[in-house]
Specification:
177 residues, alpha+beta, 5-stranded mixed β-sheet
């Protein structure tokens, strides 16, 4: 009987010939950077998981430069964008996005240790994950398909934690009813 671990699953789905998540965790440990996972994989830590090729996280602002340098030293590609810095490898379809929006820095002290597909990682607190998803959904500059995924992630969190509904802005709460 063959049992596929979460790590093997993620690396299989992302066609990884390198364990990009493990490399990232090593970079974060080497640089001593505080971080927390946000986005869809953070939702997976609290609700029924769905497949995602995006690993979104917040890194403490003062450590972003050293994280990027260490990632480059490990042969990873680092590309800055307006709202994020993307880290990738030609050996994996997984996309790592460091969120540089300053609002997310407040999530770091509340992060909790969770398991995401076999990787022990710091994940934004449940309410912070929801807040981040609300910010993403309400950002009309994002592609509609991305915003629909954010809305689905909000639904996933509300199904698992119905009490979170009170955290939604009134207009979004009405839309979801």
């Amino acid at each position: 009987m063959f049992i596929m671990t979460g790590k093997k699953f993620l690396n299989s789905v992302s066609k990884s010939r390198v364990d990009l998540v493990q490399l990232l965790l090593e970079v974060l440990a080497e640089t001593g950077a505080e971080y927390c996972v946000i986005g869809g994989l953070a939702v997976n830590a609290y609700a029924e998981p769905v497949v995602s090729l995006d690993l979104d996280l917040v890194v403490e602002a003062r450590k972003i430069e050293s994280v990027c340098k260490s990632a480059e030293d490990k042969g990873l590609n680092v590309k800055p964008f307006e709202h994020s810095i993307n880290i990738s490898s030609p050996h994996s379809d997984l996309r790592i996005q460091l969120q540089i929006d300053a609002r997310y820095q407040a999530f770091l002290p509340r992060a909790v240790q969770k398991d995401i597909l076999g990787y022990p990682m710091k994940v934004a607190a449940l309410k912070d994950v929801l807040i981040g998803k609300i910010w993403s959904y309400l950002d009309e500059t994002r592609r509609k398909s991305k915003r629909q995924k954010d809305l689905a992630d909000i639904y996933r969190l509300l199904e698992a934690y119905p009490d979170l509904k009170k955290e939604l802005p009134r207009h979004l709460r009405k839309k979801l009813e």
